[in-house]
Design a protein that fits this description.
30% of the residues lie in helices and 23% in strands. The chain is built from 13 helices and 18 strands. It is globular. It binds zinc ion.
């Protein structure tokens, strides 16, 4: 299975340059593992999870933590019990952690405890490399300080939390080379506290986070304007990395890299998987960190240098989000379960689960990707060897194209490729790693602008 190859096939017909035909590899088979994972994701499981979450009345970060039936404490303990149940079924494959921090802030006037619920499935051969999926369990009404009123949070973010739990249920039945982390976060609505706690936990445990997939508001299909979209999910990715230094920015402005952060190339990878594995369901790549002037738990991960993206439904319903539950002039307000489209949410959950599996089966992208060839007709691409890679693939595209279009396989352990008559001035370049059984990593763009392992963060900056 070659994900990027399948992406290429999906893009056949685009004007990709005169060299393209000679470099298009034969069609590759799809991965039976990924097909089986996608098939195992069930709408009824997602519905049962959101029903249970809504049943806790409110999951506001400052709500009751002692009750066993109402409030965020009960909801978190229930999530923990789900992870424990999955772990029993896989003979203890999940390690459950509850990072906790007492915080105060603009939206947390009294010192209050933020608790994340994490389940960690250690990789078999590359356990320090980590793929994270997250959603936030806390909910709110119009007044962000109102911890008492019913705040069902079915879509925001029961849908993301259910996606995390479903990924854990399905993926814990399998073994993967890299580590998978299922993260249910608190304190998002009060100021991304759970996301910050997760980022710190990852740093403290020296995780090399290759990808963080944040799911927030992923289950609604009818917009405030009545327009319905069941066939797309938006994937938001930053263009230039949050941790870029002024020197790196100067170089990047000159040579390019504005649309090739590791997060952006992760988004391209996800888009390719949707094309290959989910019929009638596609990614709308949004060239932004988040929705306009709004935030999410991918932001604290980006802030420490980890590649991170946000999944959000194609069209939002603003009468449902952050509203008091009521009917006014015949309009339903509030985040109730009746607005969640479970067939749609299942597609989002499938895309997340196969992305995690594909990343965790593939080798990491090559590090230290370099290009040379100024004042020459040819371009030399080089990279550092990757322990688990059986081969590599060099990719290039027109500088104004959104997706990688041309590629050439590099076999036999070589870590350089000379592209004859491909002028360095005219194309963007990247390299992926491929495992012996055909799983391909995302494409890494050269230099600090594109590095999946941020050189600054790796040095403990
Ligand atoms: Zn949210």
């Amino acid at each position: 299975m070659r994900i990027a190859t399948l992406l290429l096939i999906a893009l056949a017909g685009l004007p990709v340059g005169a060299l393209a035909d000679a470099d298009v590899p034969p069609p590759a088979a799809k991965s039976p593992l990924l097909i089986s994972i996608a098939g195992d994701v069930k709408p009824e499981e997602l519905r049962a999870t959101i029903s249970k979450l809504v049943g806790f009345g409110t999951r506001h970060t400052l709500s009751d933590t002692k009750s066993n039936t109402r409030g965020i404490g009960a909801a978190r303990r229930w999530v923990k019990s789900r992870f424990e149940e999955f772990s029993r079924q896989c003979k203890g494959c999940l390690q459950i952690q509850l990072p906790e921090q007492t915080v105060t802030g603009e939206r947390i006037p009294q010192p209050s405890s933020i608790v994340d619920v994490l389940a960690i499935q250690r990789g078999t051969s590359d356990p320090d490399r980590v793929v994270v999926i997250s959603g936030h369990i806390d909910s709110r009404v119009r007044d962000v300080m109102d911890a008492k009123s019913d705040a069902p949070g079915a879509d925001d973010d029961g849908s993301g939390t259910a996606t995390v739990i479903e990924a854990a249920r399905v993926l814990s039945k399998q073994k993967f080379r890299a580590t998978l982390v299922y993260a249910v976060l608190s304190g998002e609505e009060q100021g991304l506290y759970g996301g910050k706690l997760l980022a710190q936990f990852a740093r403290d445990h020296h995780w090399s986070v290759e990808a963080a997939l944040n799911n927030d508001i992923v289950g609604n299909t009818v917009g405030t304007n009545g327009v319905k979209d069941t066939t797309h999910v938006r994937v938001f990715s930053e263009g230039t990395r949050s941790t870029e230094t002024p020197e790196q920015a100067t170089r990047r402005r000159y040579n390019g890299g504005e649309v090739d952060s590791p997060s952006r190339n992760l988004a391209r990878f996800v888009s390719g998987l949707a094309d290959a594995y989910l019929a009638g369901f596609n990614v709308r790549m949004i060239y932004r960190t988040d929705r306009y002037s709004r935030g999410g738990d991918q932001v604290p991960m980006l802030a420490v240098g980890f590649p991170a993206i946000r999944f959000t439904e194609a069209i939002e319903n603003y009468t449902r989000e952050h509203e008091d539950v009521r009917i006014e002039n015949g309009v339903h307000y509030g985040d109730l379960i009746d607005a969640v489209d479970f067939a749609y949410l299942a597609q989002v959950a499938r895309l997340n689960a196969i992305t995690m599996a594909a990343l965790a089966m593939a080798p990491p992208p090559p590090a230290e990707v370099k290009i040379e060839g100024a004042v020459s007709m040819d371009t030399k691409v080089s990279w550092s060897p990757v322990a688990d890679a059986a081969s590599y693939r060099v990719w290039w595209r027109d500088t104004a194209e959104p997706h990688w279009s041309n590629n050439r396989a590099v076999v036999g352990g070589a870590t350089t490729l000379l592209l004859k008559d491909v002028n360095i001035d005219d194309w963007f370049f990247g390299v992926s790693s491929v495992s012996a059984d055909g799983y391909e990593s995302p494409v890494e763009f050269p230099g600090p602008a594109g590095a999946f392992v941020d050189p600054g963060a790796a040095a403990g900056k």
